[in-house]
Amino acid sequence: MKKYLPVLLMTILALTLTGIKLYPTIAGALNKEEPQKKQQLSEDSDEIAQETKHKNPLLEDEFPLKSEEQEKYAQENPDKFAIVEKMYYAWDYIDNAEGSYEYGHNGQVENRVTFHVDFEQKRNKAIYETVGNGSVVETEQILLNDGQIFRQLAEKRLYSLKPVNNQEDVEIMTTYLGYVIGSELWMLLFDNYDSWNYEETTAFGVPAFKIKGTLTKDTSEMLAGPFEMTVAKETGVLLDLHCYGEENKDNPVYFIKVADISINDGIENAEEVFQMDVSGSEELLVEEYGKETYGAEAGGEKTGWD
Length: 306
Prior knowledge:
Residues 33-57 are annotated as: Disordered. By secondary structure, this protein is of the alpha+beta class.
């Protein structure tokens, strides 16, 4: 008989879980400070809901403009600031989503992610592939369920479980989210309005903004140079990003590419999707499980679990 773990999650999107591996958030490539976030949350989920008017309870109620200069610049560019704000509060516009995307550096795919998230039913599942030399070297399934995080390496028949409290739960979501939904990449656009332009288009069947511009070294020394970005107009979801750098415009130094995505259209075969078969798998302590992952075996950085 199969043993299943139902996914009754308190979280927001499989994409939040991708960073649990070993990859830094995009903020590390930027020369901008991240905005201040609310530091402490109650252990009671009802109290958390009362602490903020946004789905992400760590975000400020109002967009965190830090100076009169930033506020004035935003007022002078209201349409561009609206795109930034939509990306920042993207969680607020999503009830459910599913799809897949990949990202990497210097034109090489490093990771692929397939995700399914249902906010209303509080459930979430992600399949995370690590790519090396053009081939998948590891596949991991990740669940964040009812105050616990499960990770499974099916090929090795291993899984781990880590309890988290409300504070840690939200911190994990926000710290590692910055790829597609609630993407930290709004920082490429913020307070930088003269360096990019946009036009309206359609992508994945939804209205979108196609953004083109140039990043300066003041924004990011690593990503400085031409860039292109596509953002869903109604939800602020990042659909595409290519940063070409200063030396090789044909080979992006950093990219995120959505392969397919469905937003607020429900989850297809939801009852089948939100399950994980762990029968025949051995449960390891978090520390021991971490040693079995590709990043640890390859001598990479420690993960957020170590």
